[in-house]
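Key result, reporting period 2: structure in, sequence out.
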């Protein structure tokens, strides 16, 4: 994979991470409705075996695990999940 493509993928990943963190840390202005539920959608992106560093599945899985543990959504919709990603 070329250096430019790796940088582009890293920039895309970091942008998504910033958006997710921003959404996750937005304060609630009112108490949650007991008849409502929380929904989280995540594009976990496929596991590229050649990918290393902060965009590798190993690194992303830690971040996603922490986000899910913090937010505790009632329903999670995942995109681009492969069996090798567990």
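The corresponding designed sequence is given below.
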């Amino acid at each position: 994979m070329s250096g430019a493509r790796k940088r582009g993928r890293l920039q895309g990943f970091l942008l998504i991470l910033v958006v997710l963190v921003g959404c996750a840390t937005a304060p609630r202005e009112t108490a949650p409705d007991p008849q409502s539920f929380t929904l989280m959608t995540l594009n976990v992106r496929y596991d590229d075996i050649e990918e290393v560093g902060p965009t590798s599945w190993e690194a992303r899985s830690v971040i996603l695990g922490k986000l899910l543990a913090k937010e505790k959504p009632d329903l999670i919709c995942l995109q681009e999940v492969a069996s090798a990603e567990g």
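The two ends are 24 Å apart (CA to CA). The CA atoms of residues 40 and 76 lie 5 Å apart. This case is discussed further under Risks and Mitigation.
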